[in-house]
Amino acid sequence: MVIEDKLKYLRSDTERNTISNQLDDVENLLGKLDSKNMDLAERILYQMDKIDRILSQTYADTEIPVAYQTQLQYIYNRIRSHAQTIISAIGGVEQLKVKRERAGKKEDAWWWYLDNYVNNNFKKSVQKTFSIIGIIVLIAVAVVIIYEQFFAPPPEVKARIRHEQAADRLVESGDFDGALQEIQAALKIVPGSYELWIWQGVIQQKRGDQDAAQQAFLKGHDLVDKLENYYLTKAYYEFISGLTDAGLADAQMLVAINPQSPEGFLYIGQAYENLGETTKALDAYEKASVLAEKSDNAELIATIKVRMGMLMQTSPLKSPLN
Questions:
Q1: pLDDT tens digit string along 31-86?
Q2: Helix (H), strand (E), coil (C) string for the chain
Q3: Which residue in 88, 125, 134, 183 is deepest, having the highest Cβ count within 10 Å?
Q4: Which CATH number fits domain 231-317: 1.10.405.10, 1.25.40.10, 3.10.180.10, 3.40.50.150?
């Protein structure tokens, strides 16, 4: 090997060691970095200057070796990920600006411009957040528009539902005068609803106006399609209004018309339960359960089973041996 070749080999080997050592030093400094060590943060920045200078001089006309590129990219990523920590350690954005101006650093030494990097990332984050919010809002608006156009009930149906819900709340609070006004408002929208006429009649009963109640019941009776539905609806509203005796009588009329009605026996059981007659209540619930299973009404079966279970827990029957 000629002398020139030997010198070239030695120079190349020395350069490799120097660059590798510089890169390792930066990695070690980054590993020790915290937001309060100004000297350490400055050393990282100046060390990056040194590495950049060595690489520029050594590989001015050739491509940087892959091994160095890989380690250098790793260091770049770590510096960017610790950008805010480095800025804080330097003393904040203003101090970083002062130090880079004194050092005469240009933007190609991007590690001296970490404040710009942080600001750009923040802007991108805000833009992304607003974009996501905008997409969510657009989807929500689209859903509302589609619902209103194709699935929402007509305005008169919405109004009727509001009046009925208001009446239910007023009945629960004992305000039957207010409930009557709501039902009458609903009847102006759908005067042909037998359910609302029956509901009005029950409320009139609670108010003590029997004549008005009977007139409403007759109106509902004339409008109903099946007599079974008349007594089913009447019993339901009587029970939720606390008219147990009237509800029992109508439930018995229901099963007289349709002995296979699970709802009828459910209401009879509920009436006897309210009256404290546990044996009769359980007997009615048992009949209701059998009929509900025959009709494959899962929801009704569940309701009956729950009522039976609660009744048996709260009012256990005495054993014949006791």
A1: 999 988 999 999 999 999 999 998 888 887 778 888 888 999 999 999 999 999 99
A2: CCHHHHHHHHHHHHHHHHHHHHHHHHHHHHHHCCCCCHHHHHHHHHHHHHHHHHHHHHCCCCCCCHHHHHHHHHHHHHHHHCHHHHHHHHCCHHHHHHHHHHHCCCCCCHHHHHHHHHHHHHHHHHHHHHHHHHHHHHHHHHHHHHHHHHHCCCHHHHHHHHHHHHHHHHHHHCCHHHHHHHHHHHHHHCCCCHHHHHHHHHHHHHHCCHHHHHHHHHHHHHHCCCHHHHHHHHHHHHHHCCCHHHHHHHHHHHHHHCCCCHHHHHHHHHHHHHHCCHHHHHHHHHHHHHHHHHCCCHHHHHHHHHHHHHHHHHCCCCCCCC
A3: 183
A4: 1.25.40.10
